[in-house]
Amino acid sequence: MTDKSQPNESRPPGEPAELSERVQPQESSQKGLFGVSGTGDTSGFGGLVRHTTAASALVSTPRPFGEYFDEVVDILNEHDEISEETIKAVVVDRGELTIHVAPDAIRDICRVMRDDESLRFELCNSVSGVDYPDRDTRLHVVYHLTSMTYRRRVRLEVAVTAEDPHVDSVTSVYPTADWQERETYDMFGVVFDGHPNLTRILMPDDWSGHPQRKDYPLGGIPVEYKGAEIPPPNERRAYK
Amino acid sequence: MSAETQDQYADSRDTTEGRVFTVTGGDWESVTEAIDPLSQERLVVNMGPQHPSTHGVLRLVLELEGETVTEARVVVGYLHTGIEKNLEYRTWTQGTTFVTRCDYLAPIFNETGYCLGVEKLLGITEQIPERANTIRVMMMELNRISSHLIWLATTGMELGALTMMIFGFREREKILDIFESASGLRMNMAYIRPGGLSQDLPAEGLAKIKQFLKDMPGHLREYEDLLSGSAIWQERTQGVAYLDVSGCLALGVTGPVLRSAGLAWDLRKTMPYCGYETYDFDVATHNGADVWGRYMVRMEEIRQSLRIVEQCVERLEPGPVMVADKKIAWPAQLALGTDGLGNSLNHVKHIMGQSMESLIHHFKLVTEGFRVPPGQVYTAIEAARGELGVHAVSEGGTRPHRVHLREPSFINLQAIPAMAEGALIADVIAGGASLDPVMGGCDR
Could you cite one Gene Ontology molecular function of this protein (chain B) (predicted)? Predict the structure, then answer.
């Protein structure tokens, strides 16, 4: 296996110093009207430059957040084990609360979220990854928690680099995260420190690479005509 | 095992790990006789991935002591088809065609969950026409019935009630007929689309639904006459595969399994969507926390689903089934022909002969698709097997940046070791079946 990120690797010392800078996204822009690449844009809109608004998605929403969101964030801030730096940003979008946290604090925050009597997020619905190739901390792990007592939902999000993809495992708090963290490791190569058995789950054991990363090479389809090949979907001319 | 006593169904070879048997049939006793009981007490049985009672390609590795399971491990991934990855290279509308193939026994749920996510990203949740919402609810409840019928059929078969299998598939066929008359397809319909439905429910479909509502209560009594009083069914299910509420929550188990443990957590009631708060129905619970409880809960859920479908039929009023916004709504008026669903002839006449602008509009929306503002949402619905969550991320393009399905089959399967360890090997089958896993959904 050429895979560099083995599950039992320990975190290199002195890494998470500049995390707060790394969580900030980069500007990204797109040229032309149709996102054409590799061939001339004959539409006449080739000089058009469009800045994507997604780049500024990680700026905290100003208070008040509305609904129950202020209360949840306030209670989290009251806890001594959660320092100011561990909560990177609080984003409220489309009626959903997202709390961006540091990758080495996720376990403590989950424990507080589960055990605090005024939070009581008993159920961890989903753990999964998202790859944002344009950002420095490109690998995001997203946790969806539900409080059945208060009928609330919250999303926790951590971001790590592809070079140092270490996130604390939350299996000791939410045993249901076991398979979901394995899937995120399998698909994105995020290493969950403290997971009891971090192995591949959907792909074969001897697979190399992490298929859900955006830079994972896709296969084309060979055609039985003079060695031609239908290019993989990300290289075809298409609207982007 | 000497050459004379070599069992034709249980080939064996010696390895460094000990003797390995490949059992394909025959008598279990003849296999166990061949093992020296003093030196080889520990028996590791590999059940699956092609075992008939594993609901697809699920593999269970069981460590046995006699007939008691001491350790159970679940291996999944044999049906992984990369649906989530594929979605990232298709438009948002085409995504419906992929997600419907995840949990193939409950396709309407996958489609609805996904479309609710896309609509929330677009901010058009409130604009979905009333008729579209009513038909969505109706189709979801019919799908819940058909999914529970398959559960009843396969579980009955696995526990020895072969008649139940025939009965379950027989009634499910009628629901598939309803789906066919609405969408042209029996499974993987891609009927629910972002913004509404692919096409309206025809009168013929509605007539079939009414007939089904008339027939089904009688069939339910038939199933209960067959199973509930049967001593074998009771022995095989009562007190088997126990999992209480705290176990369910720790392992993330939702749906009928959680409700069979006594917690009335049903997203249709607790976090309503598609207007479920306006329907009159009860949440079925039981406090057995065993296979019997899950059987009772599912039977009751079929009855409650019938109630909801009845209310849907009553309140169904003529109207549009797609949002009015022409920048999002699928441009083609679809019609069901003898060869399946296609563009209606009137629409083809309009864009090819009458309006150049309509043709451009059609072309742009079908080839390029609509743009979805950047952001992320999580929508969850109460599917037949538990909470089906959709985490959809957009970066502002015409294609999803990422779609993750929180599949109840995948999450619930983690509970098998907790249910099976310490129990008999036969109860592994009953316990696994009671989770109702569908591997297409689990592995995606």
Answer: NADH dehydrogenase (quinone) (non-electrogenic) activity
